[in-house]
Design goal:
alpha+beta, 4 helices
Length: about 120
């Protein structure tokens, strides 16, 4: 599974034409305790960079952006019910949504792990 990152601190795990999206461990640490998660509707078509949802913490609210163009095929209802999953397991059980990629060439615009580490150092 190929994992990429955005400058907005989202991770994107790609398997075939399906991308699973969440916020990075760095992002959840900066946000603090996540208390609310709003995610897109299944079936929604999003353009790369469009607001896909919101994650609210005790410190601030942050928009979640679509890292790729595509159609939402699944959202993590467990994270909606228990937003603390975003803190406790941001790259596992705290994933946010899955998107069927409309343009796989957009993957080339995302950061690899080394490039992402450079922007968080």
């Amino acid at each position: 599974m190929d994992v990429r990152y955005t400058a907005e601190h989202e991770w994107v795990a790609v398997q075939g034409n399906l991308a699973t999206v969440g916020i990075t461990d760095y992002a959840q640490g900066v946000l603090g305790d996540v208390v609310f998660v709003q995610l897109p509707e299944v079936g929604a078509s999003l353009a790369k960079g469009a607001v896909a949802g919101v994650v609210e913490s005790v410190k601030a609210a942050s928009d979640i952006f679509a890292p790729l163009t595509g159609t939402i095929v699944e959202v993590n209802s467990a994270a909606i019910r228990d937003p603390s999953l975003v803190n406790s397991d941001p790259t596992g059980a705290g994933w946010l949504f899955k998107i069927d990629m409309g343009d796989a060439s957009e993957l080339g615009l995302l950061l690899d792990e080394n490039a992402y580490r450079r922007i968080t150092s």
